[in-house]
Design goal:
single chain; 7 strands; 2 helices; alpha+beta; elongated
């Protein structure tokens, strides 16, 4: 994992269990890959490891499937922030081949809402969190 050009990059190992009967990664597994990217991103920016330390909820996630991933492929996930609102931030994901960034397997987006679990409601993103997010923002 490395932070470069405002992106977090993570090599994704394709596990045998990820493959469906059609011989490629099942569509639902792409969301697991995105989740791994979010986890790596949050750890890289804030050093958080325990789920109870994450102060956001996932409000939306989507995926555009562009090319099948097969067992011997070597995908790399690139993750960055595309926009930051008062209470939310949007993450972008691109799954590319590790040896060719132009070979794109999928792209996706998720919306995270900063959240107070004690009050059970959304809350504004604190300035220190916002500043860290801005460092990885690449606007659309």
């Amino acid at each position: 994992m490395a932070a470069s050009q405002k992106k977090i990059t993570l090599n994704i190992p394709v596990r045998f269990r990820d493959i469906d009967s059609m011989g490629h990664v099942n569509n639902a597994v792409f969301f697991t890959y995105f989740e791994e990217g979010r986890k790596a991103f949050i750890h890289e920016l804030f050093g958080l490891e325990r789920p109870s330390d994450f102060q956001f909820i996932l409000a939306h996630v989507s995926c555009d499937y562009l090319r099948p991933i097969k067992l011997n492929d070597k995908p790399t996930l690139q993750t960055w922030i595309s926009s930051i609102g008062t209470k939310r931030f949007d993450m972008q994901y691109v799954l590319v081949d590790s040896s060719n960034d132009n070979m794109m397997y999928a792209r996706g987006q998720s919306i995270q809402v900063y959240y107070d679990y004690q009050q059970n409601q959304s809350k504004p993103i604190p300035d220190d969190i916002r500043e860290r997010l801005i460092a990885y923002q690449i606007e659309k």
